[in-house]
Amino acid sequence: MDPKGWRVKLNDGHFIPVLGFGTYAPEELWVTFLQPQLVRPALEKSLKNLQLDYVDLYIIHSPMAMKPGEELLPKDERGKLMFDTVDLCATWEAMEKCKDAGLTKSIGVSNFNRRQLEMILNKPGLKYKPVCNQVECHPYFNQRKLLDFCKSKDIVLVAYSALGTQRVKQWVDLSSPVLLDDPVLCAMAKKYKRTPALIALRYQLQRGVVVLAKSYNEKRIKENVQVFEFQLTSEDMKVLDGLNQNLRYATAQMLADHPEYPFSDEY
């Protein structure tokens, strides 16, 4: 992390903000475009829509490919998701070519487990390592083993759902506990005179995790910046480590249709 603590250096020499993206411009390769010949056209289309010459970061949204086409989530006549077979190493080579072409500064992945990361890292002729792995990560699902592995490979772990979830019933089990109502988080928030959300965010930053804190509320967006104004003690960090339940909020139809979908694999 640089001296200001607002950004972290990636393994390709570029930097990423540690909280949200601000003016940092990332883009995701959607699951229906994982065939190698579709990777660059998908990015070029996004650049045209965004009216940009390049993005700062281009990531593979998921290692699980779906049938190419116009539908975001293609389904068969029975309503089941239609998956595709793809060589992720070939997909990664196409990502590398996008970086070489100047269409993106950095390339990374999302929702990859250790085995899938190792597949890329051990690929013969690898030119660029993934700079990051974006996964669900919060005090109830702290991804400790995956974080340790990523650190050992100089890959930044980026946390989504860092404050829990917006609890959309199509994607989340509504019977799951609300993270920001956790009594330990609330007690710690009172101790530091902060909000539970700030405690959860500070916990991640001190672990070396980049955080995506999504909010449409101007007051909360401004409040999130306060995460740089205080520090948790090592004792309190251990307490927060103890909240881990290996609890995922991102449970989708994909789990039912494809039991090996990587969301179901912690490590």
Report on the architecture of this protein:
The protein is of the alpha/beta class and 267 residues long. 32% of the residues lie in helices and 13% in strands. A six-stranded parallel beta sheet has the order 3-4-5-6-7-8. Strand 1 and strand 2 form a beta hairpin. Helix 1 packs across helix 2 and helix 5 packs across helix 6. It is globular, with a radius of gyration of 19 Å.
Brief sketch in words of this structure:
The protein is of the alpha/beta class and 267 residues long.
Mean pLDDT: 88
Helix content: 25-40%
Over the alpha carbons, how many angstroms does the gyration radius reach? 19 Å
Structural class: alpha/beta
Shape: globular
What is the β-strand count?
8
What string, H for helix and E for strand, traces the elements in order? EEEHEHEHEHEHHEHHH
Which ranges are low-confidence, i.e. pLDDT below 50, for 5 or more consecutive residues? Answer: 252-265
Straight-line N-to-C gap: 25 Å
Number of DSSP helical runs: 9
- Indicate the proportion of strand residues: 5-15%
Question: How would a crystallographer describe the biggest sheet?
Answer: 6 strands, parallel
Multimerization status? single chain
Task: Going across the biggest sheet, name each strand in turn.
Answer: 3-4-5-6-7-8
